[in-house]
Amino acid sequence: MNDVRPFRFGVVAESVRSSGDLVALARRAEELGYATLTIRDHFVAEPFGEQLAPMVALTAAACATETLRVGTMVLANDYRHPVVLAKEAATLHEVSGGRFELGVGAGWLREEYERAGMAFDAPAVRVDRLEESLHLLRSLLGGRRTTFEGEHYRVRDLTVFPVPDRRPPIMVGAGSGRMLGIAGRHADSVGVLPRALPEGAISEEITERMPDTIARKVDLVRAAAGGREIELSMQVNPVFGDDPRAVAERVARTRGWDVPADLVLEMPSQFVGPPEHIAGQMAARRDRYGFSYYLVPDHVMEEFAPVIGMV
User: Are strands 201-202 and 231-235 parallel, antiparallel or unpaired?
Assistant: First the structure.
């Protein structure tokens, strides 16, 4: 590849439960050279534990740092009307000095919808809503006066304030074929994920993690992008150890995968071994698939940091 996108790395704030911990984590991530701090969007404890509200928490993180970008990973579209979200995103972009990145998805956790008394509509309906929302978010955050007539949202002669001097980057998390196409058409950055299941869970099928599957998903994104430059990202959980093969065997046992270590070592989402080996894996997978933005959970932030200086 002649025109290689530079790597950048982010931290997912999974274990933060207080404002003090959040600010400390943000400042340490900045010191270590991470590009972003992100927060997921759940209001039930599962599957990642209790968490702070993302937009408010990210405002505090932005105010406590100088260069660190902050982002949502990712907001469930059904939890906020896109006009309200555009207003909040524009405000956070302003407060952060242009360091906000808006990640959105269709929503997938049935338990969360049901416990909140919200209708968990069929996947096609939730995805339809997301695509309409993306049209609105791109237009409003792009500073355009917007009129839109869709099946789910209707907006007339509306602008957003404050008007961003540059539209915040939009990330879409996607795993299914249709979602990958929507992400390719509308997003600046695409988080490639295992597919969400209609019953309201994320697929644990090992086929979702195979090289051919990831290559196919990347091809779907690129085809939908139509030559538009787009960033490919993935959330990963590196596992460290001196012997990559031994670590891969341990990962397979932990995940309940009845596969050899060689297959784990080939999975695009699996990074195992010492830091220098993981750095080499990332460089090779950027060349093969195009991934240049990796996010790691906060509990491995310190251990992973040496990799940042190796790629």
Answer: unpaired
Instruction: Decide: residue 292, CB within 10 A, 0-12 exposed, 13-18 middle, 19+ buried.
Output: buried
Percent of the chain with pLDDT strictly greater than 70: 99
Strands (E), the chain: 8-12, 36-39, 69-72, 75-76, 100-105, 146-149, 154-158, 170-174, 189-192, 196-197, 201-202, 231-235, 239-240, 272-273, 291-297
Q: What value, to the nearest 5°, has the Cα angle with vertex 47 and ends 43 and 50?
A: 45
Where are the chain's structural domains?
A: 8-308
Q: Residue 140 above 50 pLDDT? A: yes
The predicted structure's pLDDT at residue 2: 46
**What is the pLDDT confidence band of residue 4, given thresholds at 50, 70 and 90?**
confident
- Output the pTM of the full model: 0.95
For domain 8-308, which architecture applies?
Answer: Alpha-Beta Barrel (3.20)
